[in-house]
Amino acid sequence: MSVTSSAAVRTAKANVDLSAIGSDAVLTIYDGTRPATPDTAISGNNPLVVFTMTGAFGTVSDGVLTAATIPAASVTTAGTAAWARLATSGGTAVYDFAVSTETAATGDIQFAAVDMVAGVQVSIASFTLTEQ
């Protein structure tokens, strides 16, 4: 069964997401196994790169939350990127995402390569969350 929502409902849901994320959000890329939910504590995963946003996370239009510019960040620990967590500035987890290469195209977040090299600067060209 497929459920669809009106534009008004999708937009309302995206605005709830935006409110939950808040200002100055943090997106951290990790190695290892992704926890079951964002409510599950991280255990044994290494943070590879941390993207820190400044100000409002983004804007909402027609059920799509589009992030503002995400400043590039340097890889602090070498490893294989496997998943990411978006958290509030206070550290409360909001979303977890799968990470893959652009070639595999299986991840919510896609990089040219998932092998992260310490000291290399990484950027995110665009970031959207689309409500259904």
List the defining traits of the structure above:
5-stranded mixed sheet, globular, 1 helix, 3-stranded antiparallel sheet, mainly beta, 132 residues
How would you describe this structure to a colleague?
The protein has about 130 residues and is mostly beta strands. It is built from one helix and twelve strands. The strands form four sheets. Strands 2-1-7-8-9 form a five-stranded mixed sheet. A three-stranded antiparallel sheet has the order 3-4-12, with helices on one face. The model has no long low-confidence stretch (mean pLDDT about 95).
Number of domains: 1
Query: What profile does the largest beta sheet have?
Result: 5 strands, mixed
Helical content band: 10-25%
Mean pLDDT: 96
N-to-C series of helices and strands: HEEEEEEEEEEEE
Please list the strands of the largest sheet in the order they lie side by side.
2-1-7-8-9
Strand content: 35-45%
Poorly predicted residue ranges? none
Determine the number of helices (DSSP H or I, runs of at least 4 residues). 1
C-alpha end-to-end distance: 13 Å
Structural class, by secondary structure, is mainly beta
Overall 3D shape: globular
Radius of gyration: 15 Å
In total, how many beta strands? 12
